[in-house]
Amino acid sequence: xxxxxxxxxxxxxxxxxxxxxxxxxxxxxxxxxxxxxxxxxxxxxxxxxxxxxxxxxxxxxxxxxxxxxxxxxxxxxxxxxxxxxxxxxxxxxxxxxxxxxxxxxxxxxxxxxxxxxxxxxxxxxxxxxxxxxxxxxxxxxxxxxxxxxxxxxxxxxxxxxxxxxxxxxxxxxxxxxxxxxxxxxxxxxxxxxxxxxxxxxxxxxxxxxxxxxxxxxxxxxxxxxxxxxxxxxxxxxxxxxxxxxxxxxxxxxxxxxxxxxxxxxxxxxxxxxxxxxxxxxxxxxxxxxxxxxxxxxxxxxxxxxxxxxxxxxxxxxxxxxxxxxxxxxxxxxxxxxxxxxxxxxxxxxxxxxxxxxxxxxxxxxxxxxxxxxxxxxxxxxxxxxxxxxxxxxxxxxxxxxxxxxxxxxxxxxxxxxxxxxxxxxxxxxxxxxxxxxxxxxxxxxxxxxxxxxxxxxxxxxxxxxxxxxxxxxxxxxxxxxxxxxxxxxxxxxxxxxxxxxxxxxxxxxxxxxxxxxxxxxxxxxxxxxxxxxxxxxxxxxxxxxxxxxxxxxxxxxxxxxxxxxxxxxxxxxxxxxxxxxxxxxxxxxxxxxxxxxxxxxxxxxxxxxxxxxxxxxxxxxxxxxxxxxxxxxxxxxxxxxxxxxxxxxxxxxxxxxxxxxxxxxxxxxxxxxxxxxxxxxxxxxxxxxxxxxxxxxxxxxxxxxxxxxxxxxxxxxxxxxxxxxxxxxxxxxxxxxxxxxxxxxxxxxxxxxxxxxxxxxxxxxxxxxxxxxxxxxxxxxxxxxxxxxxxxxxxxxxxxxxxxxxxxxxxxxxxxxxxxxxxxxxxxxxxxxxxxxxxxxxxxxxxxxxxxxxxxxxxxxxxxxxxxxxxxxxxxxxxxxxxxxxxxxxxxxxxxxxxxxxxxxxxxxxxxxxxxxxxxxxxxxx
Length: 926
Hints:
ten-stranded mixed sheet, 32 strands, 35% helix, disordered N terminus
């Protein structure tokens, strides 16, 4: 029998607040009585026989596999907190690792993870179904987690089953994100300010028309030969499966309840429709995922503004030197993924920059996106959401994004490689990813896929190998200054005055049960050139220009399907070399990791454009033929790309770590912050120590990851030097001395943000943590603002934020997002303080800032700011929000599964780790 569970909306849909206001428990019970029906049990099936992991593959993906909830289940959850089956059964094990990892053994790993073996043991089968009555595919779900195990005898049937299972588990979420990708979320789900911000953030950079989406499909198929046609056939079968479930759940009235709460369906008459999916919806979905996790670059205009501020402060020569020292393009102290000394030059600084188009001072303005707003599309909340969306869309700092620890078999107890890795995709209910196993002709894999794109496993394991990815962030986006002619909407393209294309999306909304936001509307408008969408307006040397962004993956989000198809094909991936060949077909900017029973491997993917000689990718350049990407064809947005050998890559290095850090020597990433202190150091230090000792096991590598996930990077890698400066003389001030004692005690205990005991909801060394949280922004300002001046200090913060503590509301998902310490001024503070101490610093800042280089003056600044920080109350440091009361430190840090629908979950203690995570050690090979 089909699953009858559902849930959804985006943080954005405020179901909890609305529902509690008008529903009474008694009325819920009456309504529920007619809506619930039991799941069917099914006969047993045998476990798969093509599994070479020997029971040593595990995975986890909170909160649970089931991301659909009927209206009855949503009402019960809102009233009583009850959960649909398998909606949160992975949340507890995931959360419990934070206090349970210290005693972890190989035998207890699956206390905190799922068994990721192929197949389902006969006594663990919960249900079996033949979707839409097909004889060529079976979906088996296990009792523990409800994960779908899809087995087909034909390829069409297999993919049909994958689509059907995806809709069973994530239909509402898929529907939400196809509307996000099309810039139509508010019309579909409601006009909440957060919904407005979300659709604006993504549509600004990918304003695709229906024709654009179809062209991507046509081009991807045409350019990929037989595999392209196979991908098209797979996608059509997958869509057919989704639509079969829509029809079945509609007629059976067990579709996701959010369709009722948002006014798309009537709970009494069943009137209304759930629109079928089509192929172009998959491309719209892919454009959102690509923008979130796989499109490094941008930020050139902000770079130009800070460079000009530095040059105004110090003069051109010294100002440029100061800017470069803060940029840390190729910092010699940066932690590297490929650490064997091999160099992979990319996006390096040219000897003499050519074609730069730096703006005149004060001339830059952001291109408006929203026009003609009415009602709640024009209020203060809407304006704030638009501003945040714009900043996120135009920033080079892509947040959130995954880690990996991989150790060669030479250093493990078994002699087989061990890997602990996964994507850090945020926390949502339901989760953006979903688990599945797919077995069919040419497909054999288990793992995670983004909902609505799960015709293949995107991150997971095959028969005798496993793979994962982290966001890499190398620069595939450039900013061009197009000179205007005639008016503000014509520009010079290779000497010819050319009209910009106007693309519009008109949205309107009205209040619903799920989202009571009052009626409103607006038009989103993008002006597009051959060099991409217009993002800013300015003057350069007095000439009016529009700054545009050109992304190599623009109009090519669909192309990557071929790489994922290859990863799922057991006849293709048989070695580290074939793995690397597969991921070369993925144009998203990712770091890819691989492990089988003998080998490990790494490859950095993405279409890296070959730039014209002398172009500095850090800054805007003139939109002229001399500075175009080599081989660039604006009609197809294709160009000459760097060869595979020029991408950072490696096979069988002693170990690999990645936490969005620098990939290799001379390989520049677009975001700032690849310096001496990076959260990648938290992994590097632990894994390096394990490898030196030898005998690494799955348990010891999980412990290393889990230990790093609780570490405060500032405490572990910067605080010791700060205390060294302070303690260079006896601390006589009682307030400062008490604070120093608390910080030192915490540091001696490990500098971690961890509960006193499991479930206590209170941190050990809470006062020290409060002090550092309050002190960091104060000490950073105290060290740097006097020397840099307010203008330059502020400009540099637009390139790199000062702090990213767990309680800070940073990134596209705001607070309570888990991922922390990715971007901050830790390297700057570290390098400067070490310089003042007289210690050796490779790649120092261009001058000393703390106290003007005087140790005693620097000490005075640190003590003064420390006293101020110590005097701040918990309520001042943690001001509270809709979830947490002011002063609740644990809650301020805690992770929330952000509601994308009607089902809510409790918050869990902070961890800084992947959302989906694998632990693998293959014992044999085909």
